[in-house]
Amino acid sequence: MAQTTPNHTQTVSGWAALDSSGKAVPYTFKRRENGVNDVTIEIMYCGICHTDLHFAKNDWGITMYPVVPGHEITGIITKVGSNVNKFKLGDRVGVGCLAASCLECDFCKSSRENYCDQIQLTYNGIFWDGSITYGGYSKFIVADHRYVVRIPENLPMDATAPLLCAGITVFSPFKDSNLVDTPGKKVGVVGLGGLGHLAVKFGKAFGHHVTVISTSPSKEKEARERFGVDDFIVSTNAQKLQVCSHIIRSSEKNSRFYRGYSVSQAFSGANTRITQSKRDIGSGKRSVRGSMTGSTSETQEMLDVCGKHNITCDIELVKTDNINEAWDRLARNDVRYRFVIDIAGNSSSL
Ligand SMILES: [Zn+2]
Ligand SMILES: [Zn+2]
């Protein structure tokens, strides 16, 4: 049953997985009233992240059913709380992975709330009022304004949605390694999927020499012709790997949550695993860094950079009737390069 938190008075239609069979079905539930710090967002689009599949199928054993997935949300503001100054009715906005944090720790106070140890996610999290959070596979969402970002006017709402998770996950390592708009570095991107193709776009837009490192030789043509990558390495070729000075590992499959990696000067081994021997890292003053999505301010910075360079995700738009089909295809990696659900569009099931 839907939660019964007293201030959850708004009825909303959405799609949920009810058990570990992992099928999305129409689901009606309650959201909280729009509080003083909240905005209500009529959802237009929601990207499908591999994480959604993991939660739907309870792959990590932490799913609280029913789960309404979705943390790549774009939409229009329809209500604004009295404490909210930075947004107004009609604004084009986005919500990513974060729903709440403690607001008081060093991470929260320095705009790095994504590393707060009390972080709560946009779905399958516990909000401050004790309710379970429900994500963007739904018609509207109530979000605290401190976790909402503005979408630049020149970016389309559908192809921007995946930037809220996939985009920030690979942007963060670019930023951490001072690779944003500092051209001329050699950047390697491991994997050319939903995250990887965005890392390639960032790398090219920032003026770097971009190499895709992949296990699939068949992706070379696409990497070069569609995305203009400068080089392509099959990941078993250890000798060639050493030419990259910065490597972004973009694969999210099987990784819990949403990690991007920036590995500076780190590769001398015969494979692309992140684990390096102490000697490998010590000689040459190499470093390995990890990151987990990005903060709200960092996500805003990424969107502004995307607006400036006209970077969006390559997407396949799906109707709400076809969520399960998209999930099945995503499980087979059959997508170029990210599915986005047309939440506001017509469907037969609601
Ligand atoms: Zn995600
Ligand atoms: Zn905190």
UniProtKB/TrEMBL annotation:
CDD domains recorded: CAD1
Q: Name one GO molecular function term.
A: zinc ion binding
Q: Which keywords accompany this UniProt record?
A: Metal-binding, Oxidoreductase, Zinc
Q: What is this protein called?
A: Enoyl reductase (ER) domain-containing protein
Q: Which cofactor does it need?
A: Zn(2+)
Judging by the UniProt lineage, the source's domain of life is Eukaryota
- Pfam families reported for this sequence: ADH_N
The entry sums up its family as follows: Belongs to the zinc-containing alcohol dehydrogenase family.
| Example GO BP | lignin biosynthetic process
Native organism? Salix dunnii
Q: Which residues form the Enoyl reductase (ER) domain?
A: 16-341
